[in-house]
Inverse folding.
């Protein structure tokens, strides 16, 4: 587990931004969310997932299986704009003590939205985290709200679901000095075609590449 922990450790160097209406999202190109080009791709990801789950959960597999069975709307209730997101919330409850201990006392609300689109961009948004401003925090008793795309969720693998919950929690941060909640931005942003042309050409990308290599080593160790 030690090795895995270091591989999964998040960089602390991400840019942050204070402000009340800051949001952060995961987005993907239009079309079926996380579609795989081939069945082999899908099988590879699923295989990696089961290896990862075995290492990650470290005896807590029943907890994750239970989280995945939290109450879930099979159909979207007519006329509702938002629904409480049971499964992502249950996953977050497992992820926070393991990877986000600073969020132990954060009040986080998890909500489904039937769909999340990125206006004008023709892209599907998988989830969106935002920090509540003071008024909303008072009224909703929440420091952060995380929206999840109910329609896209159906098409994701178990690992992708856990990864999305983990990803959004990474956006929820705390100022070490003041203790104030704040948003944290991605520590790696780049176009895939630029990586295709120049490789890991800057520090954040090198760190990303290092993490990926470490993860591959861990997973190949697990399967042998
Ligand atoms: Zn994000």
């Amino acid at each position: 587990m030690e090795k895995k922990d270091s591989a999964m450790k998040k960089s602390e160097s991400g840019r942050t931004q204070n402000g009340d209406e800051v949001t952060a999202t995961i987005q993907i190109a239009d079309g079926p969310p996380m579609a795989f080009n081939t069945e082999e791709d899908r099988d590879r990801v699923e295989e990696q997932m089961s290896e990862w789950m075995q290492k990650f959960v470290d005896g807590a597999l029943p907890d994750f299986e239970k989280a995945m069975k939290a109450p879930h709307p099979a159909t979207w209730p007519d006329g509702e704009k938002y629904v409480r997101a049971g499964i992502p919330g249950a996953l977050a409850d497992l992820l926070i003590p393991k990877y986000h201990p600073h969020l132990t006392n954060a009040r986080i609300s998890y909500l489904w939205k039937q769909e999340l689109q990125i206006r004008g961009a023709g892209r599907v948004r998988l989830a969106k985290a935002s920090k509540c401003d003071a008024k909303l925090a008072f009224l909703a008793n929440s420091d952060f709200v995380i929206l999840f795309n109910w329609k896209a969720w159906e098409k994701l693998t178990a690992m992708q679901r856990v990864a999305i919950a983990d990803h959004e929690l990474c956006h929820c941060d705390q100022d070490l000095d003041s203790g104030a909640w704040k948003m944290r931005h991605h520590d790696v942003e780049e176009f895939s075609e630029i990586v295709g042309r120049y490789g890991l050409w800057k520090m954040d990308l090198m760190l990303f590449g290092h993490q990926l290599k470490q993860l591959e080593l861990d997973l190949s160790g697990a399967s042998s």
Residues 24-26, 167, 171, 186 surround zinc ion (CB under 6 Å). The beta strands are 16-17, 23-28, 82-84, 108-113, 117-118, 123-131, 144-149, 172-174, 181-184.
